[in-house]
Amino acid sequence: MNKIIELKDVWKIYKIDSFEFAALRGINLDIVKGEFIAIMGSSGSGKSTLLNSVGALDVPSKGRIILDGHDIALLPESDLAQIRGQRIGFIFQAFNLVPSLSAIENVMLPMTFQGILRKERIQRAEKLLDAVGLKEKLYSKPNTLSGGQRQRVAIARSLSNNPEVILADEPTGNLDSKTGGDILNLLINLQKTENKTLIIVTHDEKIAKRADRIAVLSDGQVVKIIKNKK
Amino acid sequence: MIADYVRISFNSIRHRKLRSWLTIIGIIIGIGSIIALISLSQGLQNSIEAQFASFGPDRIIISAKNFQGPGSVFAGITEKDVETTKRIGILRSVSPALARQAQFEYKDKIVFSLLFSIPAAEYIESFADFSPKLEAGRHIREGDKYVVVIGYSVANDMFDKEIRINNRITINGKKFVVVGIQKESGNRDEDNQIATTLEAAREILNEPEDVDMIIARAKSGQDIESVADKIEKALKRSRDDENFQVITPKEIAAQINQVLGVMQAVLVGIAAISLLVGGIGIMNSMYTSVLERTKDIGIMKSIGARNSDILWLFLLEAGMVGFVGGFFGLLLGIGISFGVGEIASQAGIPLLIKPNVYLILFGLFFAIVVGIISGVLPAFQAAKLKPVDALRYE
To answer: Which residues of B touch A55 (CB under 8 A)?
Structure first.
């Protein structure tokens, strides 16, 4: 089995004044390339912290996070930025589009930071927005788009630098169940056709059931791994 | 790459239209007032220098000490001093001049004004080329006596009826023929001047000896300051006093420039304060922009923006605000200076306003620099935000 991400005894400890709080307490988890894994757990169980650490948005206090054989846990910010830009695509519950930029500009933005030529960026962004069904909304600002449409833009954006790993934090949490279902189908479709590794943080059982595996977190520890039968 | 950042920053400025414009207005006022104040005081300097240029760089004026200009009360210079000056022998010309209040009458209207006079034979050499050019008629020349050359306002405004060439005006009861009318110069003293021959003036003013000033001209190539020095020594010896002054154009220009320099420094100081306020405005706006867009910064970082990218974006934003403010500030400043210049010349104070390329470039550059400097701190603050903290910000 081809492991793309390995978490080895990952700890995240927040210090507030003299009070210490461990959000992650020695997480060990291997994720296989092309797999869809759901991370579940009650609020405060550490699932978002885990996702942020895997996505190089946050640095663990202790332990190792190995992405494709390289430990990224203690890299400097500039290297982390590069990893976020090239290897990882992030999808958020609140969509997190840049409000001053149009749909296509939002999709182009990650490519801008990687220094890709404008012509190529436009072509690729158009193709991606077409693929998520937003061909007609290329130049719309986020505030003119519906929640479902915004999340589609966010998905197109997460794919713009063709990353190996897609991380989604409650991607359907702000959407009604039908739209949420569509978005989930879109993500799973991508994972299958493009062989992406998809990690979704959710507390929605229906989403979790469609994953290959479910990692259940409690109090900052993986308490259970469930393999779904297909 | 930089074009993309400009586009992103520009979008962000547009997105926060009102606040951006308020900041820009601060810069517009700052730059506008600096440009206006500098070009107005430069205009003043220009017009003073232009007057001195018409005065002639080779002229030396000898007058009694505390001589405050034609018409003021003074005494002390006589024909004897004219002779002494002539005897030095190094000057191209030496002419005595007399300038006194006199009574002028034309078509039953009586006006009191200044009568300027110089020997008829020396009028052209000593005087004609530093008074306004003629609109009609001729200069006073050798052999003339009861003739006058009048300024533009004298011909057109001073009396009830316009004066034409060959009209006669009465000065202190004696009739004079108008042989020349000068063009409008914009300078009140010049436009109100009436010039005649010294020979006639001595007669009607009953002033056989006194001289108000001596107009001397140096030969070309002579060092004017050393010539002035020699005149001063000769006069000191012959008069045995120091109740006279020898003035060169350079000295006057230096004195005026000194005064103007102080004035300019004060004006620029005032304008700099308003620019400082504008700069603080940019800084404030950039800080709010950083706060407002903490989440955007988090988003950008989560999709691969490096700290340097964020820094650039914010600096560009600040620089662009500075540039736009500087640009409109320049327009405002130039507009104000031309407006004030126009009003001033209508009021009789000519200001030669010339748009100065260096000043314009300086204004624009300064505005951008103020923008960037004010943006540096907020931009650094934005750049060093941790992505996960920035994302959590609502």
So the answer is: 302
